[in-house]
Amino acid sequence: MQTYPHSPSRRAALRTLAAGAAAIAAPTVWTRSYAAQTLVVSDPGGIYTTAYTEAYYQPFTKETGIQIVPVVRRSNPAAEFKAQVSTQNFNWDLSGGVTSDVSDLLIAQKLVDKIDLSGDAMAAIPADCKNDYYLADSGVTFVLAYRTDRYKNAPTSYADLWDTEKFPGRRALRKLARDMIEIALRADGVPGGPEIYKVLSTPAGWDRAFAKLSQIRPQVKVWWDSSPQSTQLLQSGEVDMCPTFNGRAQAAADAGAPVALVWNEGLYSLAGWAIPRGAPKADLARRFIQFCARADRQAAYTSKLVNGPTNPDAYRYIAKELAVKLPTYPDNLARSRRLDDAFWSRNKAMSDQRFNEWLLQG
């Protein structure tokens, strides 16, 4: 079972502020209403905290005088939202890196406060990346990654992942029903997007997906269940082909490994910001989220985190050599299709059970 870093309480987090203040740029604009105030912001930790500190936390403090105290939360913060809203005892004021499927759940359970969608920056963000309770500030794409030192001719689709004669070698797949069913149907000739869910609207469609997975199972050397593991598998050369998140494959390539990404048939999802319902500093949190909608701020996080900005104007601030590596870069986005969060939320329990039972058979 995966473990997560302990998330400090609000009081403990605030005690760290004095020690960490020197690391945060001194604000150039202080106002009577915001000076010396704080926001405790949770995020997934690691590279997210690093990227958000540089792109959001420090610049927001510099502009407003509002100090940001980052704390690490669980990968899926739904339980933390629910506990805080139920008890009205808040460890943090808002959370970033919340995936769109989790945001749908939080909204359905009435666990989040409204955000402020006014202003030019919010207006620039596509409608499917925002709603009254959630702002997605980044996109992440699940892609096919491969070792370029193993293949003279590059694979171009998930069908090539299944083609062990043309593309022999060791495979790794993710131990997650949703992503594996999606790519199995792509490999079987179903276009990504709505056609996937049309096929899965009947029992025969599910049978088709699992039949396709059974074809590749003997070739799977590793079933990975943590994202960093997929980076290590590619970087070390333990496997030759591995569907994974674009950032994880890019991390292996940036470390010097001969790894390339196939954007064709990618499946992308969103991550962003939400405020627990009843949070006492919701007004400050809304102001912070508006800051995160700005094109220059979204561009800034891409130097550390290769997620794709949702504000299209962000690409004005991103060098071309970096832009082409991002999920929302127009050429990459055009070859990907968004996951249907609502569909997978409805079918999660059933698909997870069937997938886990299928794994045990092999």
UniProtKB/TrEMBL annotation:
CDD domains: PBP2_polyamine_RpCGA009. It holds the Pfam family SBP_bac_8. It comes from the Bacteria. It is found in: Periplasm. InterPro entries: SBP, TAT_signal. The keyword Zinc does not apply. PROSITE patterns: TAT. Keywords: Periplasm, Signal, Transport. GO terms for biological process: thiamine transport. GO terms for cellular component: outer membrane-bounded periplasmic space. GO terms for molecular function: thiamine binding; thiamine pyrophosphate binding. Belongs to the bacterial solute-binding protein 1 family. PANTHER family: THIAMINE-BINDING PERIPLASMIC PROTEIN, THIAMINE-BINDING PERIPLASMIC PROTEIN-RELATED. This is ABC transporter substrate-binding protein. It comes from Achromobacter aloeverae.
